[in-house]
Amino acid sequence: MISLDSLGTSPPGFRSGFVALIGRPNVGKSTLLNHLVGEKVAITSPVAQTTRNRLRGILTTPTAQLVFVDTPGIHKPHHLLGERLVQSARGAIGEVDVVVLLVDGSELAGRGDGFIVELLRNCRVPVHVALNKHDLVPEGKAWALEASYRDLVASVIGSRGGGDDGANDGANDGGVDEGDGPTQGDGPGDRAARSWPLHPISALSGAGTEELLAAVAADLPLGPHLYPADAVSDQPEQLLLAELIREQVLTHTREEIPHSVAVSIDRIVDDGPRTAILATVLVERSSQKGILIGKGGSMLKEIGSGARLQMVKLIDGPVYLELFVKVVPNWRRNPARLAELGYRGD
Fold first, then answer.
1. Is the separation of the CB atoms in 113 and 152 below 8 Å?
2. What separation in angstroms does the CA of 225 have from each of 7, 10, 114, 171?
3. Tens of pLDDT along 200-254?
4. Which residues, in sequence order, are CB contacts of 252 under 8 Å at separation 6+?
5. Which of 14, 131, 145, 320 could share a disulfide with 10, CB 3.0–4.6 Å?
6. CA end-to-end distance (rounded Å), the chain
7. Helix, strand, coil % (nearest 5) of the chain?
8. What pLDDT is stored for residue 82 in this prediction?
9. Which residues pair with 280 in a beta bridge?
């Protein structure tokens, strides 16, 4: 429970609220969250669907407090777990003050992006489109790539009816450099797209993120601090610890293990000089258990070593970590098991 006294006094004109990071799997939402917050609050890996929970990262500036909600990538689900992940991401859209749609700006807009834009068609809060991986865009290609997303947005929100086309005639376009290509027109489609400003950024290097932050913060409602100014996350410690272990599994394994693994923190004992953590890694098949353990337990030791290094930073002290591997057939399709692991889709 956060006490009102711990929040301090917010200056006049202070803004605060929740910001959903929405997008396809593996477009860099967690990387962006960690960069904005300045600390690791979400795990990252090259594996799609890395994020499974709605993780919150908190950034407090002198003029605003932004609570970012990192959501699972929106994709076509193939099992109950996938359905709940997508349900969780979609549910976040109606519970925040601003939406940031993160796309892979180094590629042309695709069907997956179109599906999410359509999903946001009737969104009642401001939407900002962040064109991530801008550092990977070849010279001279930026305008064409940005235009594909501008046209996609215009094709959807420009057809909503009502007065949308002229609602933002005086707004800027979110900082997109128009010098890379032909001069933009000012037709209905261009005006519609500008109501969802585009921001070229790089979550990896941080390029463009300050401009994105300023634009998003300006769209937050006036309000007090929601969390203490030094907070970076409100996630339970057990969830963060479990995610650090799962990150190492994703980093060190291949085959089908990444999507078939879950982690349960069984016990945390703080005995003074160090924190002892006992955890179980769940897989669906015996063959996956063998891969995770490795010859002579080598793989499990490597996973544990990597996770322990991250846990030391989180807990700020020595950590003893003991890992077990358990086979639970079809846990991704078992409603009761998913609920135990915290995958409820809400």
1. yes
2. 6, 6, 35, 28
3. 999 999 999 999 999 999 999 999 999 998 888 877 778 888 888 988 988 888 6
4. 299, 302, 303, 306
5. 14
6. 21
7. 40, 20, 40
8. 57
9. 264, 324
The overall average pLDDT reported for the chain is: 79
Name residues whose C-beta falls within 8 Å of residue 134's C-beta, 6 or more positions apart in sequence: 105, 106, 142, 200, 201, 202, 207, 208
Among 7-16, 233-242, 320-329, the range scoring the smallest mean pLDDT is 233-242
pLDDT digits (tens, 9 = 90+) for 169-193: 333 344 444 444 444 444 433 444 4
3-state secondary structure of 310: helix
Q: Are 70 and 54 in contact (CB under 8 A)?
A: yes
Which residue type sits at 286?
A: S
> Is the torsion defined by CA of 242, 333, 283, 254 positive or negative?
negative
- Evaluate whether 85 touches 332 at the Cβ level (below 8 Å): no
Q: Does the structure show a pLDDT above 90 at 157?
A: no
User: 71, 49 in Cβ contact below 8 A?
Assistant: no
**Phi, psi torsion values for 278, nearest 5 degrees:** -110, 130
**Per-residue model confidence as pLDDT tens digits over 286-297:** 988 998 999 999
Q: CA nearest 19: which of 36, 3, 4?
A: 36
183's tokens: 């001069």
Give residue 331's identity as a one-letter amino acid code. W
DSSP string of 144-197? Answer: HHHHHHHHHHHHHHTTS-TTGGGTTTT---TT--GGGSSPP--SHHHHHHHTS-
What are the CB-based long-range contacts (under 8 Å, 24+) for 303-310?
303/245, 303/248, 303/249, 303/252, 304/245, 304/248, 306/248, 306/251, 306/252, 307/244, 307/245, 307/247, 307/248, 310/40, 310/244, 310/247, 310/248
